[in-house]
Amino acid sequence: xxxxxFLALDLPRLDAAVALAGKVRGHVGGLKLGLEFFxxxxxxxxxxxxxxxxxxFLDLKLHDIPNTVARAMQAIHxxxxxxxxxxxxxxxxxxxxxxxAAGERCKVVAVTLLTSMDDADLAxxxxxxxxxxxxxxxxxxxxxxxxxxxxxxxxxxAAVHQRWKNGFLVVPGLRPADSLPGNRAxxxxxxxxxxxxxxxxxxxxxxGRPITRAADPLAAARAIEATL
Length: 228
Ligand code: C5P
Description:
alpha/beta; 11 helices
């Protein structure tokens, strides 16, 4: 079984990102590079990390008119990313065009709702109903549009997996059980562990700070790998 963990390299310095990725290589399945990294280091930064020979996940959350998103997908094609994110809220045509432009070997994954948005934030944007309903609505739209899957939280992954059996489900916001302060019961209830997300149907586990900010990142990556 290939390792489902993609390490979120949310570090400002390219040399530090390359060094850290090299350290944990072999104990994570791939590298996730976000908008901040891409704006700071561009294609050059991606090339540097690609030298390590691991799959690259470009978390760019593209959202624009269909033609612009398709052209952006074509522009990053040379980087041969394994996974690219777009926003499901861009609509069905945008998702269809993004998938068509991505090429066979790149998974296109739609972000449903940013976890920074709650019911009140949604209402302010004119969307009625709960955040949970909005996630499921956009997950269904993404499936109809023919993209590979969606990004969802560890709390939603089981419900999405039920509706989309072969969906490629990317789950961030995970915390290993032993990283919880004092392992308090209250924290345990809210936090989803990598293993629990995997068991609930996650295809990819996005993990950043539990590894990048660990005193010993290699030991942290190994410990997570051992639970999977
Ligand atoms: O929290 P952590 O450092 O593990 O986050 C890893 C990645 O997952 C980050 O790039 C962050 O943007 C993303 N994330 C997310 N939703 C959350 C928590 C983190 O998309 N609730």
